[in-house]
User: Fold these one by one.
Assistant:
Number 1:
Amino acid sequence: MLDGVAVGDVFQSPTAEQMLAVTKQVNSGAGVLYIYGNYGGDVFNFDFAAELAAAEGIRVETVLGADDVASAPKGEEGRRRGIAGIFFLYKVAGAAAAKGLSLDEVVAVTKKAAAHTRTMGLALSPVTLPAVGHPTFEVKPGEMEIGMGIHGEPGIRKSKLETADQITEELLTAIKNDLDLKSGDKVCVLMNSLGATPPEELYIMFRHAKKTLKSYGVDVARAYVGEFATSLEMAGASISVIRVDDELLNYINTPVHTPFFTQA
């Protein structure tokens, strides 16, 4: 709950009734912004909750995270999944709301962040959902799957395991091409563990990511390395890049203290 505009998300798709209850609790009169990943069940339930909230006089707006470049080609961004890059949407929206911006202003800057965020990841092992009790897909020892979704959605290719530098290069190349990064651009980078990949390996990847971005003429203004969007025990990692201007960088740099995340 933030002063004025409330910004929220959940990690498992709630029912519309559950989301309505949360919406009513956090609403302070300025409206509520829903931020969540672009998945069919979430879209259905959140949209229904927004309709129910509107019937009770609560204005709700939505910004979808759809940053996964592996899940749909360029030009079809509306079909893409929302994965770790949604972190930047939360950060920007939260900072803007805390500053006292109106709901329309928070929505606008969050959509701006979404339009400039891209993510690409890979899986080194499968995930076991507690309700299923067994791995939902297979990644053989010594193999990897590029573009795997955080819920086990299929990637774009399987291959033999490559070096950290080779993997990082492939992920960043896809992001660079999709985001049209150019020399002189400024970015923030999120190096994310999918659950079982330790910080040491993430820092190895970030080292090469920063080197590669520098070779493009792109400046890394801020970096985050750690667990931000995990998938239980899945081994793997994702790289998220947001191209920033002074406005977006100011919101990303804004200090924050929450149960999930603290930034001085």
Number 2:
Amino acid sequence: MAELLKQKSSGPSLQQGASEVDDVTRALPHAVGPEKSLLSTMLQDSQSYIGTAVEEKLTAGHFYLPQHSTLFGFLIELFEAGVSIELVSMVQRLLDKGLLEKCGGPGYITELYTYAPSPGHFHHHLQHVKDKYVLRAIIRSANEAVARAYETPDEVPELLDSVEQSILSIRESAETNQAQTLKQTVEEVMQNFQALIMKEKTSTGITTGFEVLDRKSGGLKPGEMFVVAARPSMGKTSFMMNIVEHVCLDQGKPCMVFSCEMSSAQLVQRLLFARAKFAVSQLSRGYTPKKQELQRVINASMQIMDSKLFIDDTAGISINELRAKARRKQREENIQFIAIDYLQLMKSRTKQAENSREREIAEISGGIKALAKELKIPILILAQLNRGPEGRTGKSLGVPRMSDLRESGAIEQDADLVGLLYRSKYYAENDEERAALEGKAELVLAKNRNGETGAIPLTFIEDTMRFVTGPPAEEPS
């Protein structure tokens, strides 16, 4: 091998091929022999072993030497095009594309062709190459972290978040190639399309339990941010927990709730008694629960205990801390849905956010959207509206608009769906009108990036803190 690396036809030396060295001029971890063995085996039996490499998520970036990386990329290109790989014609194709010298020249490719003593070592050598790639990635990430730690010592939370994300991405890339090919994406879309035609599913995302909302939105899809905004006391938290209940308890998907306002005990109490359909407020008036009601409460408590619902009630949590906790929990428990109550109670501790509340909200909103895309799950976040609804008159009194979102237009920009929740009872002028509007609620779907907008009628059952689809039932005459 030493003799081979000295010759021009055998390609550049390790020092020439490796573009990165550390601070003490040590070469980065590499496994040139296994790299050559992989390429040799793929050249000898392209149909069997290039397909295996693709299945094992091997990429050009895993190779240490640039000529190996270039050659592997070219082999993948031929394989995906269905072109038969034969040494003489392949060398000619490389020459025509101006890639022959970048792959080490004809002599090096000929040497590669006969290098592997046995294809039986393919998987063993492939793991060697992957391991060395991971070590190089760790070194690069650590060096970048050291440099940033010296250059920006005041941005500690942001640096910590960035370093954690970098390390997690190394682990993820070591296990799977996250980037889907166009073919895979089209196949996924067509499978969903076929399922919708065959009525096998009514939405392409996670259903919320509210039929009209699911029909308009197509469900909450991976990477989407759903903002539900309202004035205080409209039932935002109840609406959020109704969706969490449906996703976690009815569909059995692991969920995480970040509550900046209420304690975990308060949230669980709401969830439990809403699930049991028992008005716990009756107890303060001396009511004694019936046997059936007690059984419903016990059953609900058992369902919640057996579920994968995780609640973090850290007050004033920062966006970086939230993202770090969400990443870890998804890794440990495969979290499929996140709900946050609520946006304006979160913090961003960057220097830019210190002097601008609007900038702070924009960073939080952008961070949540980025997290949804990173984890490939939908995130529901509650938000507070300003006093705009109270300032309107006539039939528009209390009706929210998207422009009422407090402190930042970035929320509107980042969100895939924006729902404005309101209950007209709160704007009634007298007791008679208030009684007539009892239970009436509406979710105005003001923004829907992938579907229709419009008002969704709801009923709010105040005793059990539960929303249901449709207007309140009329009293029989």
